[in-house]
Amino acid sequence: MKRELAAALLLLLLAAGSLWHLRTADRLTGRVEDSLVRAEQAARLEDYKAALEALQEGRRLWQAHGVYAQIFFRHPDLDSLQEAFAALEQLLRQEDRAWPAALELLRYHLETLDRMEHISPGTVF
Fold first, then answer.
1. pLDDT for 13-71, tens place per residue?
2. Across the chain, what does the average pLDDT equal?
3. What is the CATH classification number for the domain harbouring 33?
4. Containing domain of residue 90, as a range?
5. Which of 11, 13, 32, 86 could in theory staple to 58 by disulfide, Cβ–Cβ 3.0 to 4.6 A?
6. Which are the contacts of 105, defined by CB distance < 8 A and separation ≥ 6?
């Protein structure tokens, strides 16, 4: 009986941990996405300084959760995300009008990273 109870408690703990992780990943990616929306709005108005500030805020948010990300996300995905941040930042600094493509790439990496954490047949099998 003790083994079954311990197994049930462990299963509940794992389920709670998974739910916590999903919620944390959603909140983190949502907050970063909010900063990307602000960066996009500023860049569309050609206020590149404000766009850079919003982008850097999103990057700081992401980096503040670096230990969490290193534990729970695949490292190649994290590298791609960091490269996308850097590419967009470079284009905004140069006031290059190619920034929308870099922004979409960054959003793609952020969305993909978040989507891969959710339970679906593709993530299980």
1. 998 988 898 899 999 999 999 999 999 999 999 999 999 999 999 999 999 998 988 88
2. 91
3. 1.20.120
4. 2-124
5. 32
6. 84, 87, 88
